[in-house]
């Protein structure tokens, strides 16, 4: 082909790059763009742009083109980096790192064009920081860096906040402000919880969706940032990251966020981080387990460190002693004659501190205590020095290679976390206390201090008064972010710091009663009601010290704590709280307390009184102008009505709630849609009705991009379940397929359970079994969700003719259930267990009676496991009569006492609620019995109806057809062919029938 177009460029590095690229193309014989595209694995249009457009290409396509032309990648990398640097040619940082070529390529390509999470894992000293820093220097996108720190483990979302804060500081917040303007309305207020410097609207501290909004806000703002400018995140030392940031990273790993994220983690430092790694590496885009350097790579490292190649003897000795760990090699390279390292690396690192001047030692102490990069002026202030003394001390530390300016900034930090840990062990108690006190002071004076970090410094400075003040601040910050575990830990520490005698510390800004009540609130959020009970008693005992509002709050907390163990006492507490709030004229809090009262009454079995309280709360909320609150009370009213058997009234209330639109409340719409469809499923509504009720919530998930919000996935599952229930399997498949193209992940686990159910019905039993096996490795946190998963697993086992597996699975699954953990799925699960037991007994005729007795007793024990009978009136599902009839029929089949009537009555009940597959199953069983009793005509009629019911249920259709073929040679209709309009058939029953 002819010469390609050469863009008109000014002389400089970009011009040199383009000129060299066209020269390489000419030397290769001018291959066509389509030929090069096939070799490079990209489109010919992309390669044409690399050759011809006047702007600088991304490195990925350029690298692929150079490789296709058999050019020198390193040479072109230097040219490209020189062009990206605006004319200042520089040696690529990859020339300054030994080995890690493959890992570097993976990280570089991920940062430039990837998405999701890549993890770099390995022990300390393997060079994780050097690797990711090198990769970040070799990409054209902007990279934000943040590092986990042990001192910030109690500050929720600290790591994520640090990364976003770096974005905010990039151009005085202009980029971040533009990104926020493109996001849904909830994003800015949610991010303000972790970035107080943002000028956004007020955030509601009691928002029930705060945590989910936070996850969605981080994903939304990152996606918006990426749309405006290529961006990536590097988050280091995840073993010390806070729980909120780790949870957020897990969401990003499986979400639709386009921003590439790289995280580094050192194993063995934190059991929580190790457990997180085990779980999240399934969802990560890639996980790099960093190996030690080879001998050749160690030789490269020594050459880079000392400027000369080591002798073979020196190399063998260094590699043997260092075991390929770059940090160890660096220590040995400083003295090539050393025969060994000290037993502990910390001893080798400590030797670098010998002979430091007092000023340098003071700076090292402050840097180690801070354990984070700090501006030189802040470090100097903490060390009580400035001017020439500070400059001289910093110069000394740089000469000794003790400092490392992270990521081309001028901040002061020790060269490696292990060096910082070594310095802290070398400090005398007085030095450590003084350093932490000074660091606490300078951090507290910052514009937006991390309260948990400051509190931890005061703890290490042994100042309980200051620590108490900052613990309270840290606990309130954690409460605003819905981080109950961190909040509880701070409140409990504050209680431990409270003086046993003497006046309360005024600086804490909290009374003892407030402290107790806040701790109880956090514990309830964690589900620790038993541990919270003594604190409630103590708070109530402080009655004289409580204001009326505090007293009402104490009563509410008391009711919430006692409702599970002593509901009658919880009722009394809630009544007193409602009365106290009525006197205060705080109507919103009063309505909320009435919700506590209603819950306690229901727990005590006083349902009519609970209905009356809910009705009063509904009347009050209607006049407050708080549409969201009124909607919540209305949907609670709907739930009460359905449970009490007032189905039509309940559904009318739910319909009214669904017509109440709260602008911008996407999460509320999803919550309402999920609640409404739950009620409709319990009432066995049609698939169209349930799809209509879900539409507003599904639209909200699309608008706010919150499809992986837990209630969003459950809302989709409800619509799919409705289609399955009415026998519309193709419709169910069309709904669920787009959500389940990828492997099962924690955030999509419910969707994959539904997909497995659909696959079972479509006859793909092997596919369903494999999918369920992957789903079983994920966490199901509530009883109803576990029981739903178990039901689908057992159903798959049964159609695979593995009743023993199904029965063991159900038994193991419900073994740890509590007496109150029954759900609408419990009756279905027990019915599947009875079916499995009957199949087992039927398959072993010699031991049938013995097996039947034992299995019947076991099933009855399982039924009595729950405090309420799963088949009784407390189970409000409209399908329960049909489920119970099927349960009784399966037990009769187990005992060999079943009759055709058992099954036909159950089938009729399923017909009444439009559940064709269940009706078809019952009629198939009835046909089996009819044939066994020689009732061929009845069997034929039952099989025809069963076949019509089973449309879409492939395994059941196969059993029906097999029964026809094996037991019926020919079927003769009693109706003449001329009248029926089809051919006549003859019924002939086998002799053994």
From TrEMBL:
<feature type="domain" description="Orc1-like AAA ATPase">
    <location>
        <begin position="97"/>
        <end position="253"/>
    </location>
</feature>
<dbReference type="Pfam" id="PF13191">
    <property type="entry name" value="AAA_16"/>
</dbReference>
<keyword id="KW-0547">Nucleotide-binding</keyword>
<keyword id="KW-0067">ATP-binding</keyword>
<dbReference type="GO" id="GO:0005524">
    <property type="term" value="F:ATP binding"/>
</dbReference>
<dbReference type="InterPro" id="IPR027417">
    <property type="entry name" value="P-loop_NTPase"/>
</dbReference>
<protein>
    <submittedName>
        <fullName>ATP-binding protein</fullName>
    </submittedName>
</protein>
<dbReference type="InterPro" id="IPR041664">
    <property type="entry name" value="AAA_16"/>
</dbReference>
